[in-house]
Task: inverse folding
């Protein structure tokens, strides 16, 4: 690996994004679980549910602040490290980020203060409302950031403007209802709900193993298992495969995930396992399951899924076409007025403009893409193939964890329904041992989606090599070292506080409506209980 | 989508310039007192209990306030992409220092009181001080550099090149602006503490508030004089289309002494901004003395509004001048998003900003009143 600006900028982005994404899934899911628990409290009036909400709320808070703290970095580092990207696509990409702030972050952050500080200052329903706002806010933020990210994967509704040298929005609704974004949103929040369910299940299982906080642990497990079963099924079935045929590079990603080097007749077989080899351009020892890939990928028996070689050849054609567009653009920019632009240049640009981004791939090798040699053009076409083994394995491990979680949650739903939670110890041990799995799956999911997006920052529009800021390697090394140090210290502290809070367990809680007076001991009327 | 033509491109650009001001002022007014309280933490609170009181005055609200900063980043990205790209990449290490300090803050609030250890708490108190002081200082330094112009160039494909260094940012005028920013936000934070605490803490806050306000008035006056004497302004010397495509390379610009004061000569009403900056601060001095706590906080908001507005008005239509290539300076007329994006973002803002103001106000009303010992020791959720 070379320590150039592009590599280091990518490294820093990956570090900060992967780190940020350690906290986000739990926030997404736990906020919804808190809302569910508190709803039960408000409906039944039974204080144990309030105590539960407060306990899981404490853990939520420890996790939430780091999500907030690391999220600030995400909002600013596009401008810091990816200044050409920010200029080139800010017209479209900036909007969902700003809307995320307006619609989601304010809601989430204002009400999270009331969630923690408002227990004694608000009515039961008022507080429940605050909790709902936190859950809605965090889920909305996932929606908007995935609309932004979906556009990076599948840039719809926008057009290049040669006067401003950037992409500009032409149809905002297309950006909003981008199928890739919608698929990724559902998949990501499902994964978040699953993460929180596994977390609640695992921690509760630990209490049952230790024989403490049994009432709270059992209730928590029941709610986590039912919620987690739905979430895990949704995360697996509604994986973001749905979007994989939408675009050229999504097809490339799909082929890389499958290690499918050559196009197969439809319906393609699914490679269960094998050893993909970038040098030999083949997958050794592949075990195929006939038809499955074609069915998953296309939901049809006749649609052909293109293989890596075919897509690579197609990329080369687009690079050559993009070079014509690039040349026409230079003529356009060099003309003193718009009227002075030669009409042929405009005509060529209109015909080949969609491939402009492909010409920019050559900037990895030459400053002016028009000076690229044949060899460099072929190398740039090969660059459109992501690192196959990484995608192949990340995806398989993620999916394996997904299926395992469906089984785990299903099993605990059955135990809970038959009131057998905590009877035998081995399922509890499995639940505790599974605690880290959803995080591993989430990080691998990010790698599959974003590492798999390479060499593009914006698919087909702007290659990563062209997206970076003009800066020094020293500055980048300083910030990478700084973030690494800061983030390492913080995660050590976070884990220790989290473990301490779990060890301490749920605290006795006074219900403001039945504080000390004896009448509080009278049975309450569970009017609204289901 | 033809709807966006309901508003002219130049009108939208001016509206978004005003909204840029609203966001910056919103951040300084809302998150500003959190930063100020962070800076005052080691001084206004002596015992652990006092420090917890100080932290808990902002405990329930800092999170929402901080979103003003995040929204600021997002909105600049959406409405002024070149400004976002040039300033954040140019001020790279300064931005990193701000981010590192800001990361410490949420964590500090949340984690400080989770352990009893005195060392643990003292370290977090330091972190919270840094989390207030460093952003306040650097934001001011950044504004000082923007007023002087920033050494960036634009290539023919609008790629950004930055010729400056981190230490180049720390010039005397910029440091003066940085200190002004520190003083201004300390004043604001002190006024918040006076309102939300009582006894010794409030007494100390009142004293520090008075000092910070005097410093604000002095530094603002010095800043104005230094701007007049030592800082050259910028003027557009070619024709510029206010409704043209956002291409910063299509104009010529000239550096000229006193140009930052030309707007005040052309539009005397603009003098209201600096007047408000001074007047607000003077009224803070009176309010602190007369113990009008609510009014005092309002006065410091007015002062901040006046000070920030005066910077924006002096520079209009410039938003980021370039020393290295003055013609590439970013202005309101050539550094915005497209007509359609500005319109869409305006619609979204018009819908959501009033909602945000409404529920934020509701939250503050709910949390109204002074924070005292019982709040800390009584509930389980105080920081």
Result:
């Amino acid at each position: 690996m070379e320590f150039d600006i592009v590599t280091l900028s990518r490294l820093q982005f990956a570090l900060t994004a992967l780190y940020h994404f350690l906290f986000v899934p739990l926030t997404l899911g736990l906020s919804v679980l808190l809302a569910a628990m508190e709803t039960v409290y408000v409906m039944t009036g039974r204080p144990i549910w309030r105590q539960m909400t407060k306990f899981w709320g404490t853990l939520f808070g420890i996790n939430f602040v780091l999500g907030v703290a690391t999220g600030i970095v995400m909002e600013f580092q596009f401008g810091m490290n990816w200044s050409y990207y920010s200029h080139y696509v800010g017209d479209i990409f900036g909007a969902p980020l700003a809307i995320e702030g307006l619609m989601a972050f304010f809601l989430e952050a204002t009400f999270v203060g009331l969630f923690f500080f408002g227990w004694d200052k608000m009515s039961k329903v008022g507080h429940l409302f605050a909790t709902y706002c936190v859950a809605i806010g965090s889920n909305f933020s996932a929606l908007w950031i995935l609309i932004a990210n979906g556009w990076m994967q599948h840039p719809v509704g926008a057009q290049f403007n040669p006067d401003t040298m950037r992409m500009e929005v032409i149809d905002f609704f297309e950006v909003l209802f981008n199928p890739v974004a919608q698929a990724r949103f559902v998949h990501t929040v499902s994964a978040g709900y699953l993460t929180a369910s596994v977390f609640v299940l695992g921690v509760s299982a630990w209490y049952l193993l230790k024989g403490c906080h049994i009432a709270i642990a059992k209730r928590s497990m029941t709610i986590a298992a039912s919620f987690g079963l739905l979430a895990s099924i949704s995360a697996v079935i509604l994986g973001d495969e749905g979007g994989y045929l939408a675009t050229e590079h999504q097809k490339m990603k799909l082929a890389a995930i499958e290690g499918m080097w050559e196009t197969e007749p439809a319906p393609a077989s699914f490679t269960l396992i094998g050893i993909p080899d970038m040098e030999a351009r083949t997958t050794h020892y592949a075990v195929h399951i006939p038809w499955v890939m074609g069915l998953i990928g296309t939901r049809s028996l006749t649609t052909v899924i293109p293989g890596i070689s075919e897509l690579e050849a197609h990329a080369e054609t687009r690079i050559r076409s993009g070079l014509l567009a690039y040349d026409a653009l230079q003529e356009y920019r060099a003309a003193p007025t718009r009227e002075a632009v030669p009409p042929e240049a405009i005509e060529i640009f209109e015909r080949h403009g969609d491939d402009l981004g492909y010409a920019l791939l050559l900037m990895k090798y030459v400053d002016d893409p028009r000076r690229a040699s044949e060899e460099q053009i072929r190398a740039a076409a090969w660059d459109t193939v992501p690192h196959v083994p990484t995608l192949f394995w990340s995806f398989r491990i993620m999916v394996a964890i997904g299926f395992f979680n469906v089984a785990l949650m299903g099993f605990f739903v059955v135990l809970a329904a038959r009131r057998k939670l905590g009877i035998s110890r081995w399922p509890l041990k499995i639940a505790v041992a599974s605690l880290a799995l959803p995080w591993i799956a989430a990080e691998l999911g990010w790698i599959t989606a974003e590492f798999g997006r390479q060499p593009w920052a914006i698919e087909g529009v702007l290659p990563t090599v062209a997206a970076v800021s003009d800066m020094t390697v020293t500055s980048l090394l300083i910030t990478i070292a700084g973030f690494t140090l800061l983030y390492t210290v913080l995660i050590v502290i976070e884990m220790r506080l989290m473990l301490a809070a779990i060890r301490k367990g749920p605290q006795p809680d006074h219900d403001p409506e039945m504080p000390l007076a004896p009448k509080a001991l009278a049975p309450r009327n569970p009017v609204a209980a289901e | 989508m033809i709807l966006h033509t309901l508003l002219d491109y130049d009108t939208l650009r001016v509206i978004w310039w005003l909204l840029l001001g609203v966001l910056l002022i919103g951040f300084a007014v809302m998150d500003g007192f959190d930063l100020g309280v962070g800076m005052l933490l080691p001084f206004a609170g002596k015992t652990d209990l006092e420090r917890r009181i100080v932290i808990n005055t902002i405990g329930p609200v800092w999170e929402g306030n901080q979103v003003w900063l995040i929204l600021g980043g997002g909105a600049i990205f959406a409405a002024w992409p070149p400004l976002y790209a040039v300033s954040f990449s140019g001020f790279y290490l300064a931005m990193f220092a701000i981010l590192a300090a800001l990361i410490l803050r949420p964590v500090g609030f949340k984690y400080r009181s989770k352990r009893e250890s005195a060392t643990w708490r003292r370290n977090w108190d330091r972190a919270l001080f840094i989390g207030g002081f460093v952003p306040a200082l650097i934001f001011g330094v950044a504004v000082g550099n923007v007023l002087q112009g920033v050494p960036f160039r634009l290539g023919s494909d609008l790629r950004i090149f930055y010729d400056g260094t981190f230490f180049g940012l720390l010039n005397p005028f910029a440091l003066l602006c940085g200190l002004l920013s520190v003083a201004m936000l300390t004043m604001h934070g002190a006024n918040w503490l006076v309102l939300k605490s009582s006894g010794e803490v409030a007494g100390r806050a009142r004293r520090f508030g008075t000092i910070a306000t005097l410093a604000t008035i002095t530094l603002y006056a010095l800043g104005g004089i230094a701007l007049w004497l030592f800082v050259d302004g910028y003027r557009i010397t070619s024709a510029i289309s206010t409704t043209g495509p956002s291409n910063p390379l299509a104009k010529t610009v000239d550096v000229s002494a006193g140009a930052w004061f030309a707007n005040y000569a052309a539009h005397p009403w603009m003098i209201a901004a600096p007047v408000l900056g001074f007047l607000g601060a003077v009224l803070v001095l009176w309010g602190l003395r007369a113990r009008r706590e609510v009014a005092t906080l309002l006065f410091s908001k007015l002062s901040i509004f006046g000070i920030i507005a005066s910077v924006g008005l002096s520079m209009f239509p410039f938003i980021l001048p370039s020393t290295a290539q003055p013609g590439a300076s970013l202005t309101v007329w050539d550094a915005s998003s497209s007509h359609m994006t500005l319109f869409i973002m305006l619609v979204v803002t018009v819908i959501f900003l009033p909602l945000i103001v409404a529920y934020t106000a509701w939250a503050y009303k709910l949390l109204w009143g002074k924070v005292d010992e019982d709040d800390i020791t009584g509930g389980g959720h105080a920081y």
Remarks:
- Residues 30 and 160 of chain A are 41 Å apart (CA to CA).
- Chain A touches chain B through 80 residues (CB under 8 Å).
- The longest helix of chain A spans residues 5-44.
- The longest strand of chain A covers residues 270-277.
